[in-house]
């Protein structure tokens, strides 16, 4: 059975894939369906949902179209989540490979640095970094990656430690390959699968961290974020709780989609590797 | 006992290096922040260029970076974190005042997530593949996807705004003269919502770990032996499978402490709990970088201490680990 067929047989994985596909569709169609500034005023303030069909989810405290904000927010969530996870995976894989392959003092120093990053609560680190450098999309991405690269780094190092003793690595040494070339062309690609298996958890964590940062007012002020929407809605929580609840549900569904689809992919490929 | 001491010494030496890296890191962040302590001081008090020059000299800010790092380290050795501009008080005092609230929140939330999470994990893992197993594992995944601050808001809408069963925020009733048990009960009531919001997120983690760990243990030979001896299923689950699957969760307890401290930042701001997390948010809002970095250092020390305690506990719980560590 092909991995794709096996993936399609797992109901959780399919549900995750559908959720993710819907989210990507939302992010891609945001400027087509809702052109212009989503932060512009679109109608009367605090219009409840399902009242006016040109504003299906109503408006917020300032009269902005909630549905348009939701679509544009999907964009920020997805972009930040993917970019931060990619950065964390790349940095983690490279540092883990260096530490594991070089061994000795290099390993010791790199692992103590990893320890230090794991000792500081990653959310506090992100908070401090954004607050010192100033909030923008790129800074938020770096801030999140700063706290998440340690996991991939440890996994990559553990993998590399077992790979570097294999025959083909000894062979590469014998034919006189440069150690750096061995580390990054022979060892790293083979150490990647377990590192990549972490990506769904990392993307999910990055999306949640971005939401928490913007909830505390440290997101990019020029972009709509779901966390920012929840925080905005908080001021009218008693009278219009839906303003906080709707973007929260979007967040939950997004993260759930990432988890389910990611777990589905890992499981189907793991089974395949087990069979071959 | 000797074994545990050896382990403790090794970990302590490692921790000092780690802490040193954290200190250098926070120093670099402090340097990168726009403006220095003098700017912050002048903004709040006013003063001319001569005054700025004088203060920079007096506070040693006109010296080289290396000297300043040395001064910073020297001050930290004396537990001096500097002066908070927003509070006009030593940062150490402000932090120590808020720390107990955060510790209370963290310990309660950890007890909730660890206790309920592992219990539900045992319940699910006792019958792998059953309906309750699938239901709990999907349910926990859904719970894991919920942002803590949002769960907090929803809980407060339901239980504090609509039903009015619980207070909406704070750590205790303001301006009340409750003492002793009355005060403890008052604080407990105030903590129900924040502890639930913080604890439920991590509950899913322990549930899933417990379940996965039990699935591993089920396959081991000693479980088969226990079955062959004719032990009851209940006894096999509790005394053999769950007991062995519980150990990795203890390690997780230490690793999660950093995450939980981070999570308490948002939870404390949602419920206005005057703790370390809320202080961090206040420091960000008022651009008090030295205070923020003081909080980060304190959290790092806290995480190191918690992990040391977990390591020691682990050495007592599992004789194999301590033995190999002590030999290495």
How would you explain this protein's 3D organization?
The complex is a heterodimer of chains A (276) and B (328). In chain A, 75% of the residues lie in helices and 0% in strands. Chain A has a single domain (3-29, 63-275), classed as MetI-like (MetI-like fold, Orthogonal Bundle). In chain A, helix 8 (167-174) runs antiparallel to helix 9 (179-196). The radius of gyration of chain A is 22 Å and the shape is elongated. Chain A contains twelve helices and no strands. Chain A has helices at 3-9, 11-33, 66-102, 104-119, 122-133, 137-148, 150-163, 167-174, 179-196, 199-215, 226-234, 242-275. Chain B has a two-stranded antiparallel sheet with strand order 1-2. Helices cover 79% and strands 1% of the residues of chain B. The chains are: A mainly alpha (276), B mainly alpha (328). At the A-B interface, helix 4, helix 5, helix 10, helix 11 and helix 12 of A face helix 1, helix 6, helix 7, helix 11 and helix 12 of B.
The overall number of domains of chain A is 1
**Mind telling me the C-alpha Rg of chain A?**
22 Å
The CATH topology of chain A comes to MetI-like fold
The number of E-state strands of chain A comes to 0
Q: What is the oligomer described by this structure? A: heterodimer
Helix content of chain B: over 70%
User: Any idea what the CATH superfamily of chain A is called?
Assistant: MetI-like
Unreliable stretches covering 5 or more consecutive residues of chain A: 272-276
Strand fraction of chain A: under 5%
* Order of helix and strand elements from N to C terminus of chain B: HHHHEEHHHHHHHHHH
Cα separation of the termini of chain A: 12 Å
- Tell me the structural class of chain B: mainly alpha
Overall pLDDT score of chain A? 86
* Main β-sheet description of chain B: 2 strands, antiparallel
The computed structural class of chain A is: mainly alpha
Largest beta sheet of chain A, briefly?
none
Report strand % of chain B. Answer: under 5%
